[in-house]
Every structure is written in structure tokens, then in C-alpha cells.
Amino acid sequence: MREPGLLVVDVAHPDAGPDLDSAARALREIGDARVEHAAPAPGVVVVLSKGLRTSTGPFVAPDRPMPTGIVPPGAVAWTTPDGWCATSDTAGIHHVYWRQGRGWGAISTSAVALGRLGGSGPDRDALGVAALAGHALESATVVSDVRLLQAGELCELSEGRVDVSRVAPPPALDADGWIDEMAAIRRTGAEVVVSIVDDALQTTSSPVLELSGGLDSRVLLAAIPPERRAGLPRSP
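The structure assignment produced for this chain is given below.
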């Protein structure tokens, strides 16, 4: 079962023309979608993650502007008397996107859907960064004019305007020493892989590696001890 998607569009001026049909199709292509044009009655809550929980237990509908302590990965959107609000988890892992158009604003779980609202193409600068780093930076996305909601931020949509505010401090880089812990786990994992590959080379007279050029292939090649790399046969 796929997690639900959400697209909420609020149009302040009748002559503002976001392409709702194209955006809705984009969201439905990804998975199950709920599409809302403007805000329904207050009190509607759309849970965007299966098994959504907070630091104090199961998620309940918020009675204040910001439900704090959503355990990653998770995201939720809900209506207010003035419009819609949305937020992600405390680490920003479950992505929620927003876009400000001329006379309209929108929030969604799909950057592509928001891009189609205004006919935006790719953001070439963000694509270049993603190609080198493997991801976009901060609130940038690979779709022009579409922004990513950061951890600890609240997105409010009302009268065709998107307002983003910080309501919780950004996650500390190493509040609990997890960076050092993960580095130690990575070193241990690398040693295990090197040991397995070395054993295989010693016990196999004619080793064959089927290489795809992906991450697995690179890991296997890197795990071959340097002193054993010389003279390994290569097939065309």
C-alpha cells in the first residue's frame, strides 16, 4: 500500500490560472492522491504517513498551530479557520513541498505536481548539484519555483499566499554522538566486506564479478585488497 499524496491549491484571484488538472494527474501517477482546491471546513486532518507517531505516542489531530515531535519519517497536513497547514517530521525526512504563484499558492507531497501547476521546467542549477552530491541542498528542488519544507518549519496556506515559519530549532548535527557512532559502524562494515571479498578471491580460482556500474559494483571493486588488484583479468 502506497502512502497517500496531497495537493492543496488556494487561489486568491479568479484570473490566476494554475493548471490543476495537470498537477492532479502528476500526483495520481505517483500513487493514491487526495486533491483539494482551497480549504474545506476546519478540522480536516490528512495524515501523510502510515503509522504516524510523535515523541509522546500515537499522533492525534493538532489543537495548536504545530504538532511537535513527529517521529521520522512522517508528515501531516490539516485545515484551520483560514486555510491549510502542513509540516514534516523533526528531521525533515518525509518531504512536503510548497510553491508561491501569482495570486495562488499550493502545498503538496509532490514537487512534480507543483511544477505542473505553473508549467515549470527543471531547475538546472539544482540538477547540477544533485548530480554531484546525490541530493539537492536545503530547500532547493530539481523543479523550478518549487521549494522543500525544512525540518522544524511550518507551512501555512491562506488566501493564495504561502507563509513558511520556523517553529522548532533545526536538528542538531550531532546532539547524541550519532555521527561518530555511524562512522564506527561504517568502518566495521567496510572491514567485513573487505574480508569477505578477500576470502572469495583466495578460495576461487577464477573469480568473476558481474559489474553494472552501480554502487554495488563499486563497493565490490573497492573491497579488493590493493595488493591483489594487479593482474586481475578483465573481460571486454
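Interim note for the steering committee: The chain has two domains: 5-166, 178-229. Residues 92 and 151 are 4 Å apart (CA to CA).
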